[in-house]
Design brief:
This protein is mostly helical and about 60 residues long. The protein has one domain.
Amino acid sequence: MGIEVSGLFAFLVLVFNIWAIVSLIQSRASTSQRVFWVVLILILPLIGFIIWLLAGPKAVKAAR
């Protein structure tokens, strides 16, 4: 049972990190800020995602 739970947790972290990186690419942040956040998310997947979620640049909303 432990392997399945940890595998699911790892998959969810991967999905959230991909979502964060896509949102970063769509944000209005400068290139250096984007690089910083991507590197942080890739080096520290869970902690980097949480820090980005709380303090990172937000994606641009699409106009309707």
